[in-house]
């Protein structure tokens, strides 16, 4: 019985609309009893938020199946020394950090942590840059530069701080294999018995490849057949959409 790690956007949903067949695929996986992690780089929504989002599209999944870059960031930081963090991000990220025992502060933080937020401003850039330049460790939930319709994402928000300080953050989310290992620990799973399903060669498939997982690319999202040739690695399987997957 293989573990399944499945991306959301481009695999299960387009914006908030169901990609036809993905509901049947997920429900079949749950009925078969495969351990399932629905994994997203987007740190703004809690597991409950994501459960509601997929439920509204007709995919019914337990809240415990969801794993986000905010959860993985909190998991990463639990393995580090220091308990004070200056955070640029939304409530779901600070919630996970509070649960992990962190103090959110702008007084001598050990870490500067950046995730997606629409309230990004000059004061945040100034403080974050000052703290990073002064030795605070720079952590980011994910390296994505933009979302739908070129909405700024975490990597873009980090760019200003990088340029000012000359320091790059550690990116927790895909394609980092850290988030894959963290998600597997969440279900007590092992890489050699896990399949990752994604729509993006440079995030989902690269992360899976680097973590030693079996990989499935679906061409219902970012990467198309022509994009496979542009990378030096290959997915193990390619399907038009999740509903077509017959190797699980």
The helix count comes to 9
Mean pLDDT: 97
Beta-strand percent range: 15-25%
Shape: globular
Distance N to C terminus: 9 Å
Task: Give the strand line-up of the largest sheet.
Answer: 5-4-1-11-12-13
Order of helices and strands: EEEHEHEHEHEEHEHEHEHEHE
Number of strands: 13
Low-confidence stretches: none
What does this structure look like?
By secondary structure, the protein is α/β, with parallel strands linked by helices. It contains nine helices and 13 strands. The chain has helices at residues 22-32, 47-56, 69-78, 91-99, 122-133, 154-165, 177-186, 201-211, 225-228, and strands at residues 3-6, 13-14, 17-18, 36-40, 66-68, 84-88, 103-104, 111-114, 137-140, 170-171, 194-198, 214-218, 237-239. The strands form three sheets. Strands 5-4-1-11-12-13 form a six-stranded parallel sheet, with helices on both faces. Strands 7-6-8-9-10 form a five-stranded parallel sheet, with helices on both faces. α4 links the parallel β6 (84-88) and β7. The mean pLDDT is 97.
